[in-house]
Amino acid sequence: MILVTGAAGKTGIAVTRALVSVGASVRALVHKEEYQDSVESAGVSEIYLGDLLNLDDLQQIMEGVEAVYHICPNVHPGEVDIGAGVIQTAKEAGVKHFVYHSVLHPQIEAMPHHWLKLRVEEHLIESGLPFTILQPTAYMQNIVSLLPKILGGGVYQVPYPIETGICLVDLEDLAQAAAIVLTEPGHMGAIYELVGTGPITQAQVAVVLSEVLGKDIQAQRIPYKTWETQAFKNGLGSYQRYTLLKMFQNYKKFGFCGNSLVLGWLLGRQPTTLESCLRRELNSLKA
Question: Helices (DSSP H) in the chain: which residue ranges?
């Protein structure tokens, strides 16, 4: 049995589907009852309701688990406490393989949510648990989520310069890599950067969008304040807004780049291109 925490999010759903597709049994941990339907549709064997900060919940959920894929809720201020608790209870339960969903370049202190993930990596390494750490870059699906707005206005908006180069990864590639790591031997003690593309500027993203959508799309930088106002309206808390703004500022200075060789090696093929991902997701939206 493989436990997936944070199972109701887009990453958890994708990883669960990939695991189920290779015959793995998945126990999903979700925080709210209303998330159960989406998780159940991914093919899980068991669903547990629980709180990642409640050690009693974690101890119960760990019973009979052989491997864990731990995803912390996105940009959570309690990431270190959550990670420490999940690691502790996994160790007590005798879990044989702990896979942590981290982030590319957690060493960057200027991006607080990256820095917190580095602290969790440290806990995991020191725990003595057999582990693998996955460090994905930014998802192509972050662009996919904007497609309705892009189609409507003809503009791809980002809160940093359009010349900013960012490496991307298809969430489906990440999920397949996670399933490989969890179900095939040879990955204990590894730390894998999961990157699908070279650095792509936001202007180049707009060119790809234009080709895929069949209409002219322009990249446009929006002010931080505009982004923050919209994020507040969408329900993002103050910590999340502050942290993501720090990330955007770091992107502006340095971009966000890695190397795709490791992901290609894991998958046994070239990682998915942005164009291929967008075409697949667009067809899915039309279906």
Answer: 10-21, 36-41, 55-62, 79-92, 112-127, 141-144, 147-153, 171-183, 202-213, 224-233, 238-254, 261-267, 274-286
Give tens-digit pLDDT for 60-98.
999 999 999 999 999 999 999 999 999 999 999 999 999
Give the domains, in start order, of the chain with CATH numbers. Answer: 2-137+170-195+258-271 (3.40.50.720)
> Residue 35: its pLDDT value, please?
77
40, 46, 50, 51: CA torsion to nearest 10: -80
Which distant-in-sequence residues (6+ apart) come within 8 Å of 286 by Cβ? Answer: none
Coil, strand or helix at 26: strand
The predicted pLDDT at position 153 comes to 87
Write out the two tokens for 224.
């931080």
For residue range 204-246, what is the model confidence (pLDDT) as tens digits?
A: 999 999 999 999 999 999 999 999 999 899 888 999 999 999 9
DSSP per-residue string spanning 27-52: EEEESSGGGHHHHHHTT-SEEEE--T
- Contact indicator for 132, 97 with CB cutoff of 8 Å: yes
Buried b (16+ CB within 10 A) or exposed e, 247-271: bbebbeeebbbbebebbeebbeeeb
Angle at CA of residue 10, ends 269 and 49, nearest 5° = 130
Q: Distance between CA atoms of 83 and 146, rounded to whole angstroms?
A: 30
Specify the pTM. Answer: 0.94
Q: Are strands 138-139 and 168-169 parallel, antiparallel or unpaired?
A: parallel
Cα–Cα distance measured from residue 184 to residue 22, given in angstroms and rounded to the nearest whole number: 10
C-beta separation of 219 from 209 below 8 A: no
Q: Which amino acid is at 92?
A: E
